[in-house]
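[Automated response] Your request has been received and processed.

Submitted sequence:
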Amino acid sequence: MASYAIPLSTAFFTFFVIAFLGTMPWTIYQYRKYGYFNFWRNVIIFSFIYYCLTAFFLVSLPLPKNRNNALEFKDHVFTQLKPFNMIHNFQQVPGFVPNNIRTYPTLFKSFTFLEVAFNIALLFPLGVYLRFFLKKVNKWYLALLITFSVTLFFEVSQLTALFGYYAYPYRLFDVDDLLMNTLGGMIGFFFAPILLMLIPSRDQIHQKDKHYDQHQLASYGAQLIEIFVSMAIARFLGSLFATIVFHGNYLFWCNTAFIFLMIVIFPIITGGKTIGGKVVKIKFDITSLRDFFKLSYRFLMIYFPSLLSQATLIMNNKQSNNVYTISAQLILFLATLFTWGLFWLVILRDWAKKREEPFFNRFISVKMKRYTK
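Generated structure:
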C-alpha cells in the first residue's frame, strides 16, 4: 500500500493547485450563466477533477528516476495480451487450492487478487459519475464506450512510456487490466443510483437554476464578488496612480479615493453598474441621484475597518513612553482587531443563514439585481 501514497498525495496537492487557479474563473462563469454559485454542482465538478487526477497518477506514478531508463527497464516484458491470465496467476498463489473453499481467504489476502480488485475499483467512481452525467440507464452503451476508452488511454500511456517521454515503458500493458477496469466502470454505472440518492439530481440542480433565472435574483455570493472585484481593481489603480504621481506616497488615500469612485460615483454614472458587477452581471437598481448618499453610506460600512486600520497604523508610528499614548494605541489596536473580526463574522454568519444580501447592502434600500445585457 505504500506504493499508492505518492500517487494519492500528488493528486491531492495537484488538485488543490488546479482548484485554486480555476476557482475564481469557474465561480465567475457560474454566476454569469446561472446567477448563483451552486454548491452541489461544484462539489461534483471538483470531485470529478480530483478523481481523474488520482486515477491517472495511480496508473503512472512513481516515475522512473530519469528519462533514459534503459538500465532499469530495457529487458522488461512490456505487454500481457492473454485474456483472463489472472486466473492462471490465482492458481499460482501459495496455499490456494481452487476446489478447496477454505483456502479462498488466502487468495483474497494475496497481492495477486488485490491487484485485480484494485483494477475493478479504479474505474468504479467513473461509472458513478457517468450515471450522474448521462442520467438514464439505457445509455449504458455510452458508459461502456467511455469507460473502455479511458482504460485504453491508461494502458496506452503505459505501453508508450507516457507517450514517448521515457525511453522504455516502465509499466505493463495488460489486457486483463482493460477488462477489469471496464468491468469496474460498468458496475459503478449500474449501482450508481444507490450512491446518487445522497445528492441532488441534475434535474433538481437545473430547477434551482430556473428559480434564480426567473426572479433575476442577485445571490449573496454574487454580491460579495461584486464588491471584492471592484475594490481589488480600485486598489490596483490607486496604487498605480500613487506610484506614478506621488512616487509611492499617499498610497492609502489614493486607494481610498479610487475605491470611492468605483463603488459610489461609477454606479451613479452608469445606471447602477460597477466593475465587479459587470463581471457577475449584477447592478444596483438606481432610481435617482439621491441614491448617491445611500451608496456613500454603503462605502463607509465596507471601508470603516480599513480606515480604523490606517488610524491604528498612524497612532502606532508615534514613539512615546506616555502611558496615555500607549493606552490609546492598545485600545485602538484592539478596536481594529474587533472590528475586522466582527466584519467577517457577520458576512460568514449571514452566508450560513442564507441571507439574500450582505449586511452592507441590506442596510440600504438600493437593491442589486441581475441583468442580461
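Summary generated for your ticket: The two ends are 55 Å apart (CA to CA). The mean pLDDT is 84.
If you did not submit this request, please reply to this message.
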